[in-house]
Amino acid sequence: MTTPKLVLSTPADILSAVPYLVGFHPADSLVVTGSTGPEVRLTTRWDLPADPGELDRLVPLLRREAVTSAFLVGYGPGALVTPVVDEVTRLLRAGDIRVTESLRAEGGRYWSYSCGSATCCPAEGTPYDTGGSRVAATAVMHGLVALPDRGSLRRSVQPSGETRMRQATLRVVAALRSRLAALDAAASEAATDLDEEAARFVGEALSRVRTAIELYDSGGRLGDEEAARLGLDLAVIRVRDEAWALIDDRDAHLALWRDLTRRLEPGHAAPAASLLAAAAWQRGECALAGMALERALAADPGYSMALLLRQALTHMMSPAMLRDRMPTPAELDDEMGAPRAVWLTPLRALLTPAQTGSLS
């Protein structure tokens, strides 16, 4: 999804837009939104109080994104917000980035650091309401969401724990075990080529990935067994990388991978949660990306895609730096070659009794 053009002409407009730009209503936070001309390039949020030296990374990040101006919003009491706003304002001006507005918001009122007039900026603050604003209506119309708080955002990626989904997963696991056992038996009698069977399996899984994306793009949703099977398909790195390479600005990717992150059994969730993180990061939703990575690494602390994305987020890399290096599906075929039986090893590991015993 392309972020809609939100016309932000007043402090109230800015305060209405920020929850939709970060995905939730912030508290004890500093939000910096950088623009180039009328286009918003990125929005980043910092917990307050910020760690010493942490804000030094801000100007290099904005410069990488060719940002020329920014507005700041601090959420919380003055003693918490004002020193940080002063520091960031100094950093931005030293970096030749214009500060168009800087605000503090608390208890439904705002104060402007850019305004020195008691007429328009009284000492007791100016009341504002984000709910019924034109900016909020525009954001909602374009599919943007502002959850009530950071905890709500975190809960949106937590396991749903549905009994029905667990039972569907057991059925899918049993069917895959039977299929692989039959292939192994046939291969031991030289009656089948496991590489050919792996190619068939990967081809079917790639088709399921593309079908699922189109389904969610049309507003649909996978059934329980379909979701469980796709979650297991993603254990095959070539299948997961296809899903990664296909991520674009459509809402479908965020909807699909968030849905699977919630519905899959915890031990199966690392690939889907990592894909959710990639989709969220590409859209500038760094808070959601970070929470998705926590979910992925809780499922598999050594999961390489999650570790790579966490490193990128920690160093505040631009999503474009990685996106521009992503191979196309055709290039993946060239790089990885024809499917081989060994590609199914991670899937086989997930199907072992040690991994699936907790599903019973």
Question: How does this model look, in words?
Answer:
With 360 residues, the protein is α+β, with helices and mostly antiparallel strands. The chain is 54% helix and 11% strand. The chain has helices at 11-22, 58-64, 78-94, 134-141, 150-155, 163-188, 194-217, 224-233, 237-245, 251-263, 270-282, 286-299, 304-314, 319-323, 329-336, 345-350, 353-356; strands spanning 29-36, 39-47, 69-75, 98-106, 109-112, 126-127. It has a six-stranded mixed sheet, with helices on both faces. Helix 3 (78-94) links the parallel strand 3 and strand 4. Helix 1 (11-22) runs parallel beside helix 4 (134-141), helix 6 (163-188) packs across helix 8 and helix 7 (194-217) crosses helix 10 (251-263). The chain is elongated, with a radius of gyration of 24 Å. The mean pLDDT is 88.
Looking at this protein, list some descriptive labels.
360 residues; alpha+beta; six-stranded mixed sheet; 17 helices; 54% helix; elongated
Q: Which spans of ≥5 residues are poorly predicted at pLDDT below 50?
A: none
Structural class, from secondary structure content?
Answer: alpha+beta
What percent of residues are in strands?
5-15%
Order of helices and strands: HEEHEHEEEHHHHHHHHHHHHHH
Q: DSSP helix count? A: 17
Q: Please state how the strands of the largest beta sheet are arranged side by side.
A: 2-1-3-4-5-6
Mean pLDDT: 88
Terminal CA distance reads: 39 Å
Radius of gyration (Å): 24 Å
